[in-house]
Write a structure and sequence with these properties.
heterodimer; A: mainly alpha; Arc Repressor Mutant, subunit A; two-stranded antiparallel ribbon; B: alpha+beta; Alpha-D-Glucose-1,6-Bisphosphate, Chain A, domain 4; 19% helix
């Protein structure tokens, strides 16, 4: 599997996104990461392995204290793409919203004139 | 009109968008089907050349004239049309010919407000990845700090 596919695969899970969201605020241990989730430490470890394989996080070397750290590179690639997409469609749909309002108002005025 | 666009990644080959409009469904649908309407919004404020042959098997082509002097052309074919609730169409940027994605637009109405949900599906990872590359060339980069704010949207 190519790198970007691994990144997308890793992001396609809400628990893993929440873990990344937590790590965006700073390093954390597995225990700290597991805290908000109603799942086992084992399950969290599995998610961390997926994130690590995708290059989205790295882990410290000390055996007991292996803090996880967010790696922004791959995420930036995906986020940049999604952000572009979002930006274009936000602009487009803002225009559509304004236009719909405009034609509805014009139609209402015409009805008033017809009355 | 302050409704926000919701963007999610339902799978690694798809991107989904949702947005609510304060207008009845028939009107929102029609705004997608005729050039006289499309010209007002698809170009995001830029002048737009528009050709639409709105029938299954028919095609469309939009050319957006950007302020930087560039002309950006997009084209596609209507695969499925169910007024006023569903359009399935292909989408291709002529600057990256052959990379064709499939867009499924669904229109639902509740209390006079209409939700558009759009799912864009890339045929292959290669196509999606080349789209990512094209996006990266645009130079829009998320800063590291912005990532934290951005993550909740990827859902």
């Amino acid at each position: 599997m190519d790198k970007l596919s691994e990144v997308f695969g890793a992001l396609a899970d809400p628990t893993r996104r929440a873990i990344l969201g937590r790590l965006a605020q700073g390093e954390a241990t597995v225990n700290q990461l597991a805290e908000p989730f109603p799942i086992s430490l084992q399950a969290v470890s599995k998610h961390l392995k997926v994130l690590e394989r995708a290059g989205l996080i790295t882990r410290g070397r000390q055996a007991q204290w292996r803090p996880c750290r967010l790696e922004a590179g791959p995420l930036r690639e995906v986020a940049g793409w999604v952000a572009d997409y979002e930006r274009f469609w936000q602009q487009r749909y803002d225009r559509l919203g304004e236009y719909l309002e405009h034609i509805q108002n014009s139609a209402a005025h015409e009805e008033e004139r017809d009355d | 009109m302050t409704d926000d666009l919701k963007v999610t990644l339902p799978s690694d080959l798809e991107i989904r968008m949702e947005r609510v409009f304060d207008a009845p469904r028939a009107l929102v649908f029609e705004a997608h089907t005729k050039c006289e309407h499309v010209k007002h919004w698809w170009g995001r404020g830029n002048p737009l050349d528009c050709e639409i042959d709105f029938r299954p098997g028919g095609s469309y082509r939009f050319v957006e004239h950007a302020p930087d002097g560039g002309d950006y052309a997009f084209r596609g074919e209507y695969l499925e049309i169910q007024p006023p609730e569903r359009i399935v169409q292909t989408f291709e940027y002529e600057g990256a010919p052959g990379q064709i994605c499939v867009e499924t637009l669904e229109f639902t109405e509740e209390d006079g407000r209409t939700t558009i949900s759009s799912v864009t599906r890339f045929d292959t990872r290669e196509q999606r990845d080349s789209m990512v590359d094209a996006g990266m060339q645009d130079g829009a980069r998320q800063s590291y700090e912005a990532l934290a704010a951005y993550l909740p949207k990827l859902r």
